[in-house]
Specification:
With about 260 residues, the protein is an alpha+beta fold. It has three domains: about 130 residues, Beta Polymerase, domain 2 (2-Layer Sandwich), CATH 3.30.460; about 80 residues, no CATH class; about 35 residues, no CATH class. Helix content is about 40%, strand content about 15%. It is built from eleven helices and nine strands. The chain has a five-stranded mixed beta sheet with strand order 3-4-7-6-5. A two-stranded antiparallel sheet has the order 1-2. It is globular. InterPro entries: DUF2204 (IPR018700), NT_sf (IPR043519). It comes from Pontibacter fetidus. This is Nucleotidyltransferase family protein.
């Protein structure tokens, strides 16, 4: 009898059988469900992001390698203490933006900023949160505008979230608060413009999902920038979207990441 070759998939960089992958996901889901149940009774608020928020807004199903919990910088310590008291292992991974909670090899990210310190969680994030359920547990999802705002800065070699943003535009664009998203991206409007151009390339039949007023405003800004003088300082803003690939620009080509002038 011919032996049937066991199908394998890649999980966290390792090849495992589909059965093992399924079992691992079930164990992870139990961990996430247990944690969300505990957080439901916590006095400290939080928002749910990551793959679960993507599913809420786009319907895209993916294996959840972790759980993304968002809260204000002043709140993450309370989440860590609360879950540590419940038997979880905790760590402050990066005091600028990230903490983690572990149990039996699985983990949860507690996010209170972004690695570039641009998308700091504040009260307005809670005010615009979207109610829903995960594993039957009531939760509040990160608003789609904040989800896009965070993801649009993730353009690393190792991870690029542009496809996620395109899917959010496609599946939730008719409900998006585009004016609010525009305000969020006002300082770095070029990133929003480039993402919109990317979206229209990927989905030419769906270009009208992007409001015409927004496209016209961004196009006008792009044209008007040539009427202004170039920056005196040689600045590279690459590290805002990718923290590894612009090292040469800073260390060898004498571009500056931050310019500070004293008077």
């Amino acid at each position: 009898m011919k032996k049937i070759k066991e199908e394998k998939v890649v999980v966290n960089g390792n090849k495992v059988s589909t059965k093992t992958a399924t079992n691992n996901q079930e164990i992870a889901n139990d961990f996430y469900k247990q944690t969300l149940t505990l957080l439901k009774d916590s006095p400290t608020p939080y928002l749910l992001g990551g793959g679960y928020a993507m599913y809420e807004y786009t319907g895209i199903v993916r294996d959840m390698k972790d759980l993304d919990i968002f809260c204000k910088p002043s709140e993450y310590q309370y989440h860590l203490k609360y879950l540590n008291d419940k038997g979880y292992q905790t760590e402050i991974t990066d005091a600028r933006w990230l903490a983690k909670v572990f149990q039996n090899g699985y983990y949860i990210d507690i996010i209170f900023d972004t690695v570039n310190n641009i998308c700091t969680v504040d009260d307005s994030w809670y005010e615009h949160a979207v109610k829903g359920k995960v594993f039957g547990i009531p939760v509040k999802f990160l608003a789609p505008e904040e989800l896009i705002w965070c993801k649009i800065y993730v353009q690393n070699r190792e991870r690029y979230d542009g496809a996620d943003v395109n899917h959010l535009f496609l599946k939730y664009g008719h409900k998006l608060d585009w004016k609010r998203l525009f305000r969020r991206m006002d300082q770095h409007w070029q990133l929003l413009f480039s993402q919109i151009i990317n979206f229209q390339f990927v989905y030419p039949a769906d270009r009208d999902i992007i409001p015409r007023w927004l496209f016209d405003e961004l196009m006008q800004r792009a044209q008007h920038q040539y009427e202004l003088p170039a920056s005196v300082e040689k600045v590279c803003r690459g590290p805002i979207i990718d923290q590894t690939q612009y090292k040469t620009d800073i260390t060898e080509w004498e571009y500056k990441v931050v310019t500070i002038k004293t008077i």
